[in-house]
Design the sequence.
């Protein structure tokens, strides 16, 4: 008999925590997951999944226009926000139940409560007002939206959390930020018919992405009608009756019905009692871990966004799986965080894997850049002047493809597959000897000379 109540206590029922819990339970451990909100976590409840459903919803306004050019008369499309919300909530509820069922089927217990550390093996359950013990603890509490509250009136703004539950869809919105969430939501709001303004503090949106993608997306968003403003710093937000006035540093003012901040996310470590167990944090408040997701305390591990490594759902899942494999199957596995494909579900969509042109030049010196810009076939019958872009970055010395960056329909789908080739160290010659699939957009990837 173990001296502890559980072999593994997982704090947080999101992607990383659930995967670790299921696998550890399947390996025979006595596992419990504590979740204070909904099992499924950010990705399922108020992130990737509902976001992508909203992206689909917002595409239909443009699809209706395109349909006309293909001979369809779809009349004047009308949109019901309450219907979208209700259907989205139904789907999230379905997924939440699947997550719960999967955990239970694996033999893990679920506790609906907030859990805080009281010591290296003690966990306090807040609502239940009791303490349990565990041999190992996994912290998988994710991250939460960051709002710069030093800006007067920032409290009037919503974040992505609330954006998934807005009672009414207003006429105008200002989105602050220039990262994944800001550009994705700007596209969603614009597609759903809102007058949309995106305010980004720097010279170009999506810092860290390949410059051609950044410039291409900003231009395409502006062409679609999004008011993208760069070097735009918010000084204050004033409430004026039912409206808000966003006052910029340069003296300009923007009137709007809704302000959304998408200015990054911070690890969920506040109030977790980590100091009671002596767990070290970094300067950004993230839990410090090694390549096996071990903290400085032997029996305490952390995975996912709370560790602020690569903040993507599939990465948290891999980290959770590697943890379970290492700790409960006696098979040490670490996660390779290089060359991870990701998509930005902006409009147009972006897909990216590997090094940007600038990073490749810096790390490899001599590189060759192959770039193709063309009109997607679906738009050729329309008057929409939007371009698709594909870019391969190749190391001159080895011919290895170091990066692939795509802007346009299904960019994410394509880049996921290119990611396999890059992981296998494919060369440009390998791409070239692959015969094209015609007619497709992806064929450009194997025909660039
Ligand atoms: P990001 O880190 O992507 O972007 C944050 C943005 O806010 C940046 O443009 C940043 O500017 C800006 N910013 C930060 N602080 C301030 C401030 N005080 N005032 C004004 N602007 C500020 O964060 P997101 O919130 O968009 O997303 C969080 C993470 O979630 C992402 O990094 C990603 O890992 C993940 N995610 C992934 C998605 C996907 O895979 N499709 C979708 C959504 C989220 P600057 O660049 O100048 O620092």
Sequence:
């Amino acid at each position: 008999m173990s001296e502890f109540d559980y072999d593994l206590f997982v704090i947080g029922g999101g992607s990383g925590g659930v995967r670790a819990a299921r696998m550890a339970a399947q390996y025979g451990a006595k596992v419990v997951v504590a979740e204070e909100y909904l099992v499924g976590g950010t990705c399922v409840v108020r992130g990737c999944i509902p976001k992508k459903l909203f992206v689909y919803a917002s595409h239909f306004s443009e699809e209706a226009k395109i349909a006309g050019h293909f001979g369809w008369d779809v009349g004047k499309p009308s949109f019901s926000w309450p219907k979208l919300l209700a259907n989205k909530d139904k789907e999230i509820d379905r997924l939440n139940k699947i997550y719960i069922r999967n955990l239970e089927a694996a033999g893990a217990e679920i506790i609906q409560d907030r859990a805080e550390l009281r010591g290296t093996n003690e966990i306090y359950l807040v609502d239940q007002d009791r303490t349990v013990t565990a041999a190992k603890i996994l912290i998988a509490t994710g991250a939460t939206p960051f709002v710069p509250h030093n800006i007067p009136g920032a409290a009037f703004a919503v974040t992505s959390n609330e954006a998934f539950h807005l009672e009414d869809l207003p006429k105008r919105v200002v989105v602050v930020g220039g990262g994944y969430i800001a550009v994705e939501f700007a596209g969603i709001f614009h597609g759903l018919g809102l007058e949309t303004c995106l305010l980004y503090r720097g010279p170009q949106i999506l810092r860290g992405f390949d410059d051609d993608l950044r410039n291409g997306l900003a231009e395409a968003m502006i062409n679609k009608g999004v008011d993208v403003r760069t070097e735009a710093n918010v000084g204050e937000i004033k409430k004026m009756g039912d409206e808000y006035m966003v006052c910029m540093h340069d003296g300009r003012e923007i009137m709007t019905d809704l302000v959304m901040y998408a200015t990054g996310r911070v690890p969920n470590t506040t109030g977790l009692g980590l100091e009671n167990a002596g767990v070290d944090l970094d300067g950004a408040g993230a839990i410090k871990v090694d390549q096996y997701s071990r903290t400085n305390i032997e029996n305490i591990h952390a995975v996912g966004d709370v560790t602020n490594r690569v903040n993507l759902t599939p990465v948290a899942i891999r980290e959770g799986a590697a943890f379970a494999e290492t700790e409960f199957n006696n098979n040490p596995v670490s996660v390779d965080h290089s060359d991870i494909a990701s998509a930005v579900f902006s409009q147009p969509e972006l897909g990216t894997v590997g090094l940007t042109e600038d990073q490749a030049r810096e790390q490899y010196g001599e590189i060759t850049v192959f770039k193709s810009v063309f009109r997607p076939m679906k738009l050729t019958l329309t008057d929409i002047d939007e371009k698709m872009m594909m870019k391969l970055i190749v190391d001159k010395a080895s011919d290895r493809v170091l990066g692939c960056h795509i802007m346009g329909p299904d960019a994410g789908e394509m880049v996921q597959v290119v990611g396999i080739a890059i992981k296998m160290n494919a060369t440009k010659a390998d791409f070239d000897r692959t015969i094209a699939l015609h007619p497709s957009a992806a064929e450009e990837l194997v025909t660039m000379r």
Notes: The chain has three domains: 6-144+266-328, 154-263, 342-446. Residues 177 and 262 are 5 Å apart (CA to CA). Residues 148, 176-182, 184, 200-202, 207, 262-265, 311-312, 342-345 surround NDP (CB under 6 Å).
